[in-house]
Amino acid sequence: MTLTANLTKNKLVEMYKMMVKIRLFEEKVFELYAQNLVPGTIHLYTGQEAVAVGVCSALRKDDYITSTHRGHGHCIAKGAEIKRVMAEILGKKTGYCKGKGGSMHIADFNIGMLGATAVVGAGIPIAAGAALSIKLRKTGQVVACFFGDGASNQGTFHEGINMAAIWQLPVIFVCENNLYAMGTRQSIAMKIENIADRATAYGIPGVVVDGNDVLAVYEAALSAVERARRDEGPTLIECKTYRHRGHSRVDPAKYRPKEEVEAWLAKDPIKQLRERLLQSTILTEVEIQRIEEEVSTEIEEAVKYSMESPYPAPQEALEDVYA
Amino acid sequence: MRKISYREALREALREEMRRNPAVFLLGEDIGRYWGGAFKVTDGLAEEFGDDRVRDTPISENAIIGVAVGAAITGMRPVAEIMFGDLTALAMDQIANQAAKLRYMFGGQAKVPLVIRTPFGGGVNIAAHHSQSLEAWFMHVPGLYVAVPSTPYDAKGLLKAAIRGNNPVIFCEHKLLYHVEGEVPEEDYIIPFGVADIKREGEDVTVVATLCMVHKALKAAEILEAEGVSVEVVDPRTLTPLDKKAIINSVKKTGRLVAVSEDCKTAGVTAEIAAIVAEEAIDYLDAPIKRVAEPDTPIPFSPPLEQYVIPNEKAIVKAIKEII
Ligand SMILES: Cc1ncc(C[n+]2csc(CCOP(=O)(O)OP(=O)(O)O)c2C)c(N)n1
Ligand SMILES: [Mg+2]
């Protein structure tokens, strides 16, 4: 990993802090789940932080993102308040969706986070539609659409990316290839190694990046975002990455070879950035320690806030069906 | 008053709303300048509004609706056309899981002002993939509205209301109605959702019908008038929201209900209407409820087969006579 010249020290530190925030947030969610405090299921983002942070760091505040069942990291990287993310995960009234969405459906329209859909691949045409809206309204925004390797086998991938391509829409398609869709290895579900190759079929650029290298992700995202803003159309970016934990709450992930897991843990995106920042003396051990403490405090406050928040009144179930 | 066709009424509604609000745009397969819509509803609109606002799409129903959803939640008012009602099946995830549920899942954050126009119904010998009536599918999805205009007047007023509203609407048209003419005022008007129209007043029996079946019910009423039976025809105009009050009030007056619809009988439109009356007005009924609907088959091709399954005025007359 090389440090790029066009990133200020502040921005690098911000990115590092954001990755740590997502990591510690997810570890906290896991801890609460282990104490049986989280209803339903959870899909943790641990291990993939460089993708959300690299991409969102290349976006403007008013740009949009769409997200998936594995979406906590996307929300946080786009600037969501973690206390309201946590409250939603716990089903509380103070959550982003007033307890109606939960872990898989967090949205914050105020920061351009257009929500997470849990139907695998369904966000792809929706992201294209937000980009069409941008083009018609001439606002100069861009959409970043996150989805997994599994999602790239959906018809929506073909239909949505094709439409975005023919209409030259300002959207970047970010495929987080963590090698598995639940227990299904990529090689069981497709004949190709690089999902980015599929871009050729739509006449758009396809880029493969090391999804554990936040700076590589950032650079690829930035050039795709700039291209989109120049009205030159979409890009497909495939980020090769790995989830550290199982697919969802009950999954011990026995289908993954031990050596594979170890190799990827050694490539931990946060560890990699930390080493670079230390080596280039952008951060000291003490500063790194302080960042972790600050983030931990923020997370503890978020936990306290959401634990103390009330559940919605049962009859609120009847609200928000229609506008 | 001037008379125009159902097709022209729809086109006028689109044109007027597009002139009124730049956020309104159309998308769908072959709706633009090269074809003007499979049923010519959008003919001429691309010439006035340009290809950006009258947007031809690839044959990708799920993405047509998905793209429309994405545009709707970010400030636009898309009107999507699905060429044939049966093909909404290809877009069902985006309709039923996305358009309908986003607002709710996100705790009221999203608004989805999206209209999906599509023609249902049989009678033109194009068989099982182009003829079914699927209104009831959409009635079963909370978060969607379902409009079922039977006349040019209703078509225009309801479409304008749909476009100005803030919820996803399945706007059900009928292939046999496009050429039907009726009175439509020149001036701007909208028909609010959830307000039924009494298409004919009567004393002895209430017939609730939608789309083409309204016209068949009116014919049945004429036939029976000659025999001294007074039939009231109630057209709900929207199935969601449904004007229960109008239906129940009519049943209170007549004491009899025949529910008529072109969809399959099982778990269909007539089942819901019958259930509402049974649940909320059974004390006013003087006879069993009757339902006239399609048998539970796909729509067949050959004319005698197709005519056999689609309800006609004779079937309505027969059902009424059974309870008079
Ligand atoms: C359309 C659809 N099919 C199946 C599922 C069940 N499911 C949830 S996540 C998942 C795997 C998704 O894999 P991928 O897209 O690679 O994302 P990842 O979980 O690896 O982040 C499946 C099959 C679903 N939610 N939606
Ligand atoms: Mg995956």
Structural overview:
The complex is a heterodimer of chains A (323) and B (324). With 323 residues, chain A is an alpha/beta fold. Chain A has a single domain, classed as Rossmann fold. Chain A is 43% helix and 11% strand. In chain A, the strands form 2 sheets. A 6-stranded parallel β-sheet of chain A has the order 2-1-3-4-8-7, with helices on both faces. Chain A has a two-stranded antiparallel ribbon with strand order 5-6. In chain A, helix 6 links the parallel strand 3 and strand 4. In chain A, helix 2 runs parallel beside helix 3 and helix 5 runs parallel beside helix 6. Chain B has 2 domains: 181 residues, Thiamin diphosphate (ThDP)-binding fold, Pyr/PP domains (Rossmann fold); 127 residues, Rossmann fold (3-Layer(aba) Sandwich). In chain B, the strands form 3 sheets. Chain B has a 7-stranded mixed β-sheet with strand order 3-2-4-5-7-6-12, sandwiched between helices. In chain B, helix 1 packs parallel to helix 7, helix 8 crosses helix 12 and helix 9 crosses helix 10. The chains are: A alpha/beta (323), B alpha/beta (324). At the A-B interface, helix 5 and helix 6 of A face helix 3, helix 4 and helix 5 of B. Thiamine diphosphate binds next to strand 5 of chain A.
